[in-house]
Design goal:
Elements (H helix, E strand, L loop, with lengths): L1 E8 L3 H8 L3 H13 L4 E5 L7 H13 L6 E4 L3 H10 L5 E6 L2 H14 L2 E5 L10 H17 L7 E4 L11 H13 L6 E2 L13 H14 L4 E4 L4 H13 L7 H8 L5
Helix pairs in contact: 3-4, 6-7, 8-9
The structure holds (6S)-5,6,7,8-tetrahydrofolate.
Length: about 260
């Protein structure tokens, strides 16, 4: 599993405060903790600042990269903010995100192409947010075809089926899982990721629902997730599922995590 640590997101109150007060130590502590917990990428999001998103995203990139070696996931729908953040990012980042919306696709595509960055592609088009697995699959196929035509190596692409809360509609769980499986069996070479904590929005014991969902989604072919990596139970379940799906030959990683006292 490719884990993208989600915690440095300005929609969270603590992060908004830290950005407002330019609290370097707070952001850096959270970055280091996520890397130590096993995050492969650290997501940074300054979306709470409508007019100054680029400026704050640059600050987040510089602040986080001063203390971690893992690449960052630049989380913004705004091509200008992405471009500004990419200029200061050391090494190749992941872009979060492109979509099948015409304007966004055309504006973000050159950034992906020129940089060779990895990119999250949202299963969303100008027709809006997809409801059913069928709709997600159609958008996913179109994205794969367009990205391929534009010369993007599909192994650098992370399709995001867009997870919606089961508290809003009971069918959103099954529909998301079906979409994951049907995208996985296309065998395109692209990864599948999602901001899976959306699944539990509006219900108590959210961590429990997120844990259940990540196990089910891995079983259907999801190989990446945008999550809170400080949740030890979830990270332990990921390691256990990797053994069961034979994604961790000879349980090497599992045994290593066990010896290091990281499993619960
Ligand atoms: N897909 C992609 N990117 C994404 C998302 C996605 N980026 C943003 C989001 N969804 C994933 N990241 C987060 C980050 C933090 C939280 C949830 C998702 C979070 N939320 C608390 C809540 O909703 O209750 C906020 C509470 C607080 O203030 O701390 O922590 O789907 N490609």
């Amino acid at each position: 599993m490719i884990i993208i640590g989600e915690l440095i997101n300005s929609t969270r109150k603590a992060i908004k405060r830290a950005i407002d007060e330019q609290d370097v130590a707070f952001i850096q502590d959270l970055a280091v903790k996520q890397e130590e917990a096993g995050a492969d990428y650290i997501d940074v999001n300054a979306g709470a600042y409508v007019h100054e998103e680029g400026k704050h995203l640059i600050w987040l990139v510089e602040t986080v990269q001063a203390v971690v070696s893992k690449p960052l996931t630049l989380d913004s729908p705004d091509p200008k903010a992405l471009e500004a953040a990419m200029k200061v990012h050391k090494g190749v980042p992941m872009i979060n995100s492109i979509s099948a919306e015409k304007e966004r696709y055309n504006q973000v595509m050159p950034l992906v192409k020129e940089s060779g960055a990895q990119v999250i592609a949202l299963c969303m088009s100008d027709d809006g947010m997809p409801e059913t697995a069928d709709e997600r699959l159609e958008v996913a196929k179109r994205l794969l075809s367009d990205l391929d035509k534009d010369g993007i190596d599909l192994t650098n692409v992370f399709l995001d089926p867009l997870i919606k809360p089961v508290s809003v509609n009971g069918e959103y769980g099954p529909q998301a899982l079906d979409a994951i499986e049907r995208i996985a069996v296309l065998g395109s070479g692209a990864h599948i990721t999602s901001g899976l904590s959306n699944i539990s929005f509006g219900l108590p014991h959210r961590a429990l629902l997120n844990q259940a969902f990540i196990v089910l989604a891995m079983g259907r072919g999801m190989d990446s997730a945008i999550v809170d990596p400080l949740d030890k139970k979830k990270m332990s379940l990921v390691k256990a599922v990797e053994v069961i799906l034979n994604l961790d030959p000879y349980a090497m990683n599992y045994l290593k995590a066990s010896r290091a006292g990281r499993l619960i």
